Amino acid sequence: MVTIAPAAPVQAGAAAPGNTGRQSRIKRNLSGYAFLIGAIACFALFMWYPMIRGFVMSFQRTRRGETTWVGWDNYIRILDDPSFWIAWKNTFYFTGLALVVGFVVPFFVALLLNEFRHAKGYLRVLVYLPVMLPPASALYLFKYYAYDPSEAGLFNAVLKSLNLPTSEWMQSPAMTIPAMVLASTWMNMGGAVLIYLASLQNIPGELYEAAELDGAGLWKRIWHVTIPQTRLILALLAMMQIVATMQLFVEPLILANGAGTQDSATSVAYLIYQHGFFQNDLNGAAALGVIMLGVLAVFSGFYLRLTTRNES
Amino acid sequence: MTRTLISSTQLKRSRVRYWTLLAVVVTVFTLVFIGPLYWMVTGALKSAQEVAQTPPTLFPRDPDLSNYTAAWEQLNLAKLLFNTFYYAAGAVVFQLIFDTAAAYALSKLRPAFGNVVLGAMLATLMIPAMVLIVPQYQTVISLPVIDVSLLDSPFAIWLPMVANAFNIFLLKRFFDSIPEELMQAAFVDGASPLRTLWSIILPMSRPILGVVSIFAVTAVWKDFLWPLLVMPHPETRTVSVGIYTFAGGIPQNVVIAASVIAALPTVIIFLIFQRNIMSGLTSGSLKG
């Protein structure tokens, strides 16, 4: 019989049974965690611990340095505040409208760009350019130039030259949210367009060919090939967008100076900011955060069930 | 070129329609996406009277840089820009060191419970940032156990940037694609894990490290609420926060001029690295 002796020294460190094996395993774990320690410490300090602390804080009250358990008091106080309901109404309105506009528009833009054989790179750069602007810069542009309520404003000048009625924009409570959706879509749609474009390029061309042979027109091909083929990424991006838009904050802060005309811009995130950093009510802000997380969790659970049921 | 919604033969047949549509789309997109930027840059070259005039002028009557110089001096933009650069550069260094090390450990060294750690990191992607803002701020003003305040310290920006699950995931997936045999060969030669990372893994990972660095710079540059909270002192502010805190008391055109200057660095970075940025964005989100 041939012995396997020559192979043994090479494997000794890695695979030999018994004592040495356990030692090398311990060594590997030690060096593994030595590499992980920095990231773990930062996650613990700035993610995991604050998650727990926020939850705990929402059931406490700190007065003059003394912290006591108060049960649901913070939640009751928050729910009693009329601006809580206004903020949710505004946030839902913004999220819904941003979903309709910021979800459908990028999809069709991507569909269109994908058909072009020329200037594709240029158009892609254009769409993504606003994403690179600091939001504060872009929002001052909208606030001072585009949404100027006089006829010297960019949008009003365009509307007037087309003989359309002009608007008061941020000064009209009815226009506040649509104007914020417009600004936010302009600033953020580039990312969604690029992701759609990449997923459109993964659709096998034979599917379109087969559909065409079956006599399917343009819309039928979109409906029966494009949408089913990109469904997963569509669902994922819709979810990500809802989570992002529910945190609406910079737009009201800069465009509407916070609350806006007749509270038309107050968002839940803005309320958290107000309670936490101006009303000296960190516990109320923590409770608002837990409520927001709860709403998003219920929403994602519902959404997940909806999309997985369609799958089967 | 793979087949898309409309076949190439069909496009060739309706060539006029294709070129008209392309021309319309290029014009409309240029107006929609460059138009406002043009308005911003030239608007800041106009006088206050000219901006308030109806109908607005397409070209500034006599372009004047005084709004830009006023913004530069009154807002102390040099200091604000330096601060933001400093925070961004530090964020890149911290992320590259700690996130790369973590991704390497999770991908190649695979210690016990590595998957649990990865799961706990990825779970933070589901938590909206606004929910954590208050307890995170509490942590910064008094770190647990040692009771040190990080307010106005650059670490208040650098350390939270390390806790970025998306980057760790991106790096880990890249490292996963590096063949295991290379690692084994290095270990057999007696190389330590650190040495393997440094001389085998990192040189192969230049593209992904570039993507992560660009993301870190733009994230710091675009961030608003966090630096507003943790950098309250005028000397430590970032450029976005500086413009916001000054905006109430200075003329609109000066605010716009400052906004243009604040946007320039990221726009230039984007125009130089657009290919890397776009490929990083789509690879990170698609092939999970």
Automatic annotation (TrEMBL), chain A:
Keywords: Cell membrane, Membrane, Transmembrane, Transmembrane helix, Transport
Keyword Ribonucleoprotein: no
InterPro entries: ABC_transporter_permease, MetI-like, MetI-like_sf
Subcellular location: Cell membrane
UniProt topology in membrane: Multi-pass membrane protein
Ranges of residues in domain ABC transmembrane type-1: 88-303
Transmembrane segments: 30-49, 92-113, 125-146, 177-198, 232-250, 285-304
Family: Belongs to the binding-protein-dependent transport system permease family.
Protein name as catalogued: Sugar ABC transporter permease
Lineage: Bacteria, Bacillati, Actinomycetota, Actinomycetes, Micromonosporales
UniProtKB/TrEMBL annotation, chain B:
Subcellular location: Cell membrane
Full protein name: ABC transporter permease
UniProt keyword Metal-binding, yes or no: no
Stretches assigned to the ABC transmembrane type-1 domain: 81-273
InterPro entries in UniProt: MetI-like (IPR000515), MetI-like_sf (IPR035906)
SUPFAM superfamilies in the cross-refs: MetI-like
One Pfam family linked to the record: BPD_transp_1
Keyword Magnesium set for record: no
Membrane topology classification: Multi-pass membrane protein
Membrane spanning stretches: 21-41, 85-106, 113-135, 155-175, 196-221, 254-273
Keywords: Cell membrane, Membrane, Transmembrane, Transmembrane helix, Transport
Main location: membrane
Family statement drawn from the similarity comment of this UniProt entry: Belongs to the binding-protein-dependent transport system permease family.
